[in-house]
Amino acid sequence: FKSQITAQLETMLRRDVEIGDLDLRVSLSQGVLLNCQGFWIKDDVEFSKGDFFHVDHIQLGIDVLALAQKGEILVSQVLVLSPQVNIIRNKQGRMNIPMLPQEKAADGSPVPPQVPTPPETEAGSPQEKPNLPALLVSSIIIEKGNVTFIDQTQSPELSVDMKSIDLKIKD
Fold it and tell me: What pTM was estimated for this model as a whole?
């Protein structure tokens, strides 16, 4: 699935994406643990040849009992170690932050997202969608994050580094 996920992310972000080694572990005490050693989103070549975003390690903990008992996907913890984001504003004032593609109307204005209508069955009534389990996240932890902002509209160029960012979000 790694190559499919990579291809979908690259299409969505219009950037090269690389996913490092993946490791899946199952235990009764911790549930399912998905570990990713390395994740990269390359920068737009108009800005730099380096990375826009990089993470050394990501760990997702999934509570299997919540799925079995309540029909919920409970991500007990998202742990992100050493993320690095490099934000650049070039001399024209454009930023290197990837934007998701938007539909455009004939006049060039963005089209608001539409809620798709379910396909109709042969009888003419909308087809029922299968109920997907609820997705809940209990905890997000970011450790040792770094953000670099480079503003090339300034003379001399301005560079601001924010280092050792720790963030904990709990339900």
Answer: 0.73
